[in-house]
Specification:
- The chain has three helices and no strands.
- It is flat, with a radius of gyration of 19 Å.
- It starts with 9 loop residues before the first helix and ends in a 15-residue tail after the last helix.
């Protein structure tokens, strides 16, 4: 993973790196590897994750088809 520092702006580069790591799931994986997870607990967690993903996909599909109202968009910070 690589992030370039422009104009000696290290803070901005760190933010970009954290965002990339979050998107790749690195933080989640580091947290999972901190302690041992029993195989039975892993199965339960993976099954609940799959159910959560399926519900989210079904909700998004229903919104696209017009069966559910779309979520309200947040107003930009400048307009507040």
């Amino acid at each position: 993973m690589q992030v370039f520092v422009r104009d000696n702006n290290v803070d901005q580069a760190l933010r970009a790196l954290k965002k990339k790591m979050q998107r790749e799931g690195l933080f989640r994986e580091m947290k999972a590897r901190q302690s041992y997870e029993k195989p039975s607990e892993k199965r339960v967690r993976e099954k609940s994750d799959a159910i959560r993903r399926a519900r989210k996909n079904a909700r998004k599909q229903a919104q696209r088809e017009g069966l559910l109202p779309s979520p309200k968009r947040k107003a930009p910070a400048a307009a507040r």
